Hints:
It contains 18 helices and 20 strands.
Amino acid sequence: xxxxxxxxxxxxxxxxxxxxxxxxxxxxxxxxxxxxxxxxxxxxxxxxxxxxxxxxxxxxxxxxxxxxxxxxxxxxxxxxxxxxxxxxxxxxxxxxxxxxxxxxxxxxxxxxxxxxxxxxxxxxxxxxxxxxxxxxxxxxxxxxxxxxxxxxxxxxxxxxxxxxxxxxxxxxxxxxxxxxxxxxxxxxxxxxxxxxxxxxxxxxxxxxxxxxxxxxxxxxxxxxxxxxxxxxxxxxxxxxxxxxxxxxxxxxxxxxxxxxxxxxxxxxxxxxxxxxxxxxxxxxxxxxxxxxxxxxxxxxxxxxxxxxxxxxxxxxxxxxxxxxxxxxxxxxxxxxxxxxxxxxxxxxxxxxxxxxxxxxxxxxxxxxxxxxxxxxxxxxxxxxxxxxxxxxxxxxxxxxxxxxxxxxxxxxxxxxxxxxxxxxxxxxxxxxxxxxxxxxxxxxxxxxxxxxxxxxxxxxxxxxxxxxxxxxxxxxxxxxxxxxxxxxxxxxxxxxxxxxxxxxxxxxxxxxxxxxxxxxxxxxxxxxxxxxxxx
Length: 535
Ligand code: SF4
């Protein structure tokens, strides 16, 4: 098969297709979205697989799990914080007897380019006691995906692949395999006992998982993804790299003038024997890993106290932010390369697009709350988070998907008045529904504003799980009083009228919901283009 130039995310998607994938599920989230976009495109083109966005990462994971129970191979994709949402089925599925291969791809965002945290998904794999791959480049991302499916079916466990932004969003040439594996037929196992986490069964499954972990350890020592090279003539330092850390180390090798002993780890659980062998050959160890000091912390339990370990914990390598070849140079005993700072460039903070409907909602909201010094506006994750910045300064909290509703309710119960929650339509479907039910149950004195722009705008305009036409009935169906469910159209000429509606509902001593409905401008442009192409 001829070479292809692919994003890291696309390499994972192609690897899954070539491994005989049948079902792909996920929720958009930078930097993971391109995996499922590639597979949805394939599904639309060929109809050979099922690939779709789900309402959130948890439902995506559960759909993938169901596909696996049917004997077919499934992949589920999300960003790192998405795994928090899918953590319940993920953690529990580690105990289940997986049928068709189940691979979960989680894209971490070191440096928080587009995220609210830097969390490192390797901890989740370790926590669940399932295998984890961490690719170094696009070719490995492709190959590890097939390997992950093989191991999932062999060991009957889900396998996690940890991507990071720099790999997910950069392109390189990959060489695909000659042979593409066919999909599994639908085949339920005869014994479904391993799918029922009743305490007595779960106790046995947990013991089984711990037993299978011995096989993960043996694989970890033998796989070429964990490669140890010893230089018997240089003992000063041995390097351990994981994921992209390898590239940053190797880019500096020429300047080091020596090739230290090196262990690269691309599969976890980490290869304990290889780590010990490296430690026996050198005076100290330096760990270069992207994310938290996950491996470095593990080393303290693997190696004797007298072995010096350098890395993030002693600040030889920065604890926060993304690594790059220059950042790791001091840890390798090299001077940083002086880069020339370009003076006088204006700052370019992120902004809502010109003409964005959120701007008009925020202007109306600011007008409505301006006379209430004890007000609070809790918000959520999406383009509209930018409403926290000048010139709007319209929202005060941003925590995690769906948090705005409960936060506003808690603040209202504690005495802040009026309490407003602002959430996007997709975020509402993702994690706001239970918050609304909670508020309905208490008839909480909050005003919930749902910004319905008909798309998942921040991650590139994916389709929302439900169209706008369903939103009103959903809100009322969940128990909101129709008398206090209002719809506004956020455009300039409606400013005063919209502010008056918001103000009136804020003064109501119970739950009110305002649907602020106008299509995202960028999505409107894309839609018009699509419609023109159809003509
Ligand atoms: S992409 Fe859409 S929703 Fe996001 S800022 Fe631009 S116009 Fe607004």
